[in-house]
Amino acid sequence: MKKLYFLFLLNCRAIIKNKRTGWLIFFLFLLIPGFALADGGMVVWPPFVHLDQSAQNAIVAWSEGQEIIILSNDIKSETQATVLRIVPLPTNPTEIKEGNFESFEKIVEIMNTKIEQMRDEFLGLGKEAGTPTAGIEVTFQKKIGAHDLTVVKVKKMNDFLKWIEGFIQDKELQTKEISQEFKTGIANYLKRKINYFVFDVIDATKDKESIRPLIYRFSSDFLYYPLKITATSDIGRSSADLNIFFITEEEVPETVFNFSVVNGWFGRSVSVGLEPKELEEISPQVASLFEGKAVCKKVSFYGKLSNLRKDIISYPKQFWGKDLKIGSSGKEVEALQKILINEGLWNSEVGATGYFGPITKRALSAFQEKYHLEILKPLGLKSGTGYFGKQTASYLKKLSLNTEEEKEIEWERDLYLGVRGEDVKRLQEILIEEGVWTASGIEPTGVFGPITKQAVIKLQEKYRTEILLPLGLKQGTGFVGPSTRGFLNKRFFGHYNREKEKFCGWSTYGRCVSDMDCRAGGCSGQVCESKLEEPVTTTCEWKDCYNAGQYDLSCKCIKGKCQWSE
After folding, report:
1. Which of 104, 229, 241, 500 has a beta carbon 3.0–4.6 Å from 55's, enabling a disulfide?
2. Does domain 315-398 have CATH number 3.40.50.300?
3. pTM, to two decimals
4. What residue spans define the domains of the chain?
5. Mapping DSSP to helix (H, G, I), strand (E, B) and coil, where does residue 322 land?
6. Helix (H, G, I), strand (E, B) or coil at 83
7. 56-124+132-313 CATH
8. Tens digit of pLDDT for each residue in 427-454?
């Protein structure tokens, strides 16, 4: 039986340095899935994953509000040169350290092993189975290997541009006028509250093998990878290869990677599952994000970098559970505004505020018209409405991540003694968290009994202004009627039943002899550091996940290193 292989040659090369044979040059082939022919021939599917060490390669891992990006270099210089790379981040990075290119080689090895298994099953062969300014704050400065790193928090655009000019002079880089396109790109990030920028000055005169990838760790409500910064910079006119490996708990939807590419190519691999051991082999830092298994998908791009007019972002689906309109406010509105700004549809100097006003309505109308086939056509509409209803939410959910972060239950019926159901169980969980559940040792059962009634009375009296006073009552009744249900829906619907946010402080792993050598540092006490070393400087901002006490953590000396521990 003959097998027919369809091969399409891409106009690019991968150059990988082999320690034994020197430079190995080979062409990349794209294996296109097709149909079974009359003689029983099939195409080979899925295609293997290839890695171009001379391309920009990235591993992006996201889980429960924490993200890690491992970003490799893509430096090509025949003469002595210094390269400046700028990486915008949504929050201040909690950790920047050197990684290894072996992480990329390992992820390719694991994916290709599993793709080989998929091929066998597909073919029926396998088993079933600078100078400070008012609008700039430097939050991090350090030399790591070949990287001279500076992280700045930007408050004002004009101050940032002045700071960049001073930074370039201080680093003795070639002075060049900042283009209007680059300024517009930076403004886009600032409007989305992405106001941390990493300046990485790389000594390209060093041996390429000594320029290791960098690992960035930061907090983020959404999966994020910056592309727009590249498109708007000076290198946006050039062509390049990009390889990005996305690692998440659930598969990233294909629709996230829908880019309009002119004279270029955007491709995706199949997704493969990763076991905890395999995650550890790829990177211990990546493995620390996940409690169990994960899924990996590789996305590749070849073409003009100017095609990449927006960043890759994907929010959890739970953000799109409510209708939004003029007057609405909250995190959901802010998330929507950031998406609209990323899409280039925001016609205002004002950025994301979390309040749904006329600017948001106009931008949303433009968004609905941009994706009219998915949003407007099913409703028989030709023009955007600017109202965020079920159809628009449905489209955004297709671009969003599945998470088990919350189970949404709305209180739609009265609750009282004898009633059973998931809404009762959810109520009991809230009563426990609010500290009004007196029966220690008794877990939520979903049955409304005397214990639940007494706890409801305490909840009603705890929030008497919102629940009792509108009814003219002074004492709780234990009956969950319209007033109590309204309070519960307003305060907890879509926001409550979440796993406890992970501790987001970090350790320096500085040297120590005993616990006395360690202390909680940083402006908010979120850093476990050594008294024997220079204190860590951080931005002054407070997050509940910085509170080590509520996680029963202390800054201790463990095996000669200061770190958070129970």
Report:
1. 241
2. no
3. 0.62
4. 56-124+132-313, 315-398, 422-492, 506-565
5. coil
6. strand
7. 2.60.250
8. 988 898 888 988 776 778 788 889 999 9
